[in-house]
Amino acid sequence: MSRVLVTNDDGIDAPGLRRLAAAAVARGHDVVVAAPDEEASGSSAALTATQEKGRVVVHPRPLAGLPGVKGFAVASSPGFIALIAEHGAFGDPPEIVLSGINRGANAGRAVLHSGTVGATLTAAASGLRALAVSLDILTPGGLSAAVGTALAGEDDRNWVTAADLAGQLLDTLVGLPPATVLNLNVPDVPAEKVRGVRRAALATFGQVQMTIAEIGEGYIRTAIEETAVDLIPGTDLALLADGYATVTPLMAVGEAPLRLPEPYR
Amino acid sequence: MVFTPAPLLTVTVEQRGDTPDIHLHAGGQGVWQARMIHALGVPVVMCAALGGEIGRVLGPLIEAEGIRAKGVLGESRNGAYVHDRRGGEREEIADAPGQPLTRHELDELYGLALAEGLGAAVSVLSGPAIPAVVPPDTYRRLAHDLCRNGCQVVADLSGEYLEAVVHAGIRLLKVSHEELVASGRTRGDSRADLIDAMHRLHSDGARSIVVSRAELPALALLDGQVVEVEMPALEPADHRGAGDSMTAGAAAVLARGGDMSTAIRHGAAAGALNVTRHGLGTGRADVIDGLVERVALKPVTDGTVEPCARTTPNDLANRARQG
User: What pTM value is reported for the model?
Assistant: First the structure.
């Protein structure tokens, strides 16, 4: 049994968060949930937080269907939550950080910008194991294509497919070296329609979610992707399009093995 | 209402032609502040403990200046000093500090100040004199009771007296950078350190804060924004009392129903004028009015200021810590 923090970048009320926490609880882990109090997509590993009277704003938030699991809504970015959790902000520090289930794929090199992935890279920077989980709601062939993106209700999405695969991958993650980060993307289809789970390379750009503020309209969730390029076989985007779930181990920031010319040696 | 628990009697000997000239005045921070507020045309009542022979003399002296003095007439003697200025320099002949107030005197002074404060547009809490004759707890009770009843409180305090009132919800806290350092509320006196300390004072409950910095522009925090108070350029003569004038100038504006930025600009003008004149608490209302327009409140934005706080992941976690 490990101490597990579950966070996300869609906010404490997002449906994917509860499903991911439930998957960890079902596998016997000691789970605490702490997530942004509002949408934080595209926040990468940003450190932002709101204080009141010198205290970071944190509200206890029970999670539907998860009695006994402590949940907290935090006025901050997911990267900040992962950072302070390691220092005991939400009880005993976690050994593993789960982030997701994100509403939309986090694939390709654009994961750099993902708040879901940002929380996991933050955790790994101090040696924790971490898993980012995303549900691909835009790939052709998925539910969104069949029903129409705007029409599919949140609860109609195949969160269970992603949660089950995340749970299985969590069992594997526990045995991998410290600081391992895995990025899991799952097609938005029933479990039996997933063709398998494949290790994938990162697409050149890929796809992440962000929010764009429209003056007078509030925030609009937006998937950002490079659509003009062909899918390269073996990449996460290509495999997702073929109906596979994808796993990519990611590296946290480190020194590049590049020799510099004089005088910079 | 100016809460002045322990006014002093000042005796100054000067030379006038062939003969010595002896001056008797009331003194001490609260008296200087009351004098300035009065000079700005706002009626003032001073609440003070007046005890012993010195106290009996002080009451009429204060009243003679047009300031209403409400005194607790007790046993504990007020402080007094005698200075000789005949040589041009200020030479101390004798300095008799005041005696700490008895419990009974404290209770009476507290009741008097609360009654006057509840009826006043603004209450100024001035310092307890040195050495202190009134404990911080009296300030704490007074500040909390006045704020709780919707009164505007301006405090010019430091150290444990500042700590006693900061949580009450005071309208304006004036403190000098030296006092902030001495209170241990800031690591250093750089602008960034002071701004950091101001944000903490604000978090602790002070609604607006102004930090005077001797010859440097004062810093103020109002409406959640830190500003640098750019003073009119004047030839300074005496820094002493500039801070007290600032407090008084701001309090006078608030008493007339003015807003905080006007109050701080007015305070800055009063402080700037004060330093050009020997004699504490002096300054004419019309001159100050003329200077107010030259006082600018320049926002200190995050982009132009050096990083204003240092923290660690652990510190941040402590600020969020649950259970």
Answer: 0.54
